[in-house]
From TrEMBL:
Molecular-function annotations in GO: 3-dehydroquinate dehydratase activity
Binding of substrate, residues: N74, H80, D87, I101, S102, R111
HAMAP family found in the cross-reference section: AroQ
Species, as recorded: Planococcus salinus
Annotated catalytic residues: Y22, H100
EC annotation from Swiss-Prot or TrEMBL: 4.2.1.10
Site location (Transition state stabilizer): R17
Full protein name: 3-dehydroquinate dehydratase
Function comment: Catalyzes a trans-dehydration via an enolate intermediate.
Subunit composition and interactions: Homododecamer.
Upper classification of the organism: Bacteria, Bacillati, Bacillota, Bacilli, Bacillales
Amino acid sequence: MRVLCLNGPNLNRLGKREKDAYGTFTLAELESELQNFSSDNAIDLTCKQSNREGELIDWIHQADDDGLNGIVLNAGAYTHTSIAIRDAIASVQVPVIEVHISNIHKREEFRHHSYIAPVAAGQIAGFGKEVYQIALYALLLRRQKG
């Protein structure tokens, strides 16, 4: 099983920004844990991060062209603003699971709306960094069910 984990704007600042909302772990630490989980579960995982909307869109398109089995996407603030990322997800066959470290529905009202949720296979929010492993597990279950 081949999965792409995409992290959007400001997630490269994990461990340095808003620790009460995002915790103290870094993106590198998160990716290392995800690689360990993936290795234990026969998942070939590639992790990427960008602060640029167009680059995230290109990676979503490429994942579909490459026949990947899933995308775990934390689009950061683009979740609430990017119709372009929403349209990219709608244009591909690969299932996308939207994740958020914090519970976006308990935060500022502008974070309550997701352009991604209506076109994603699912949304997982509020469980800290574990949202990524939960999403990978969900992709495993989807694959088992066919």
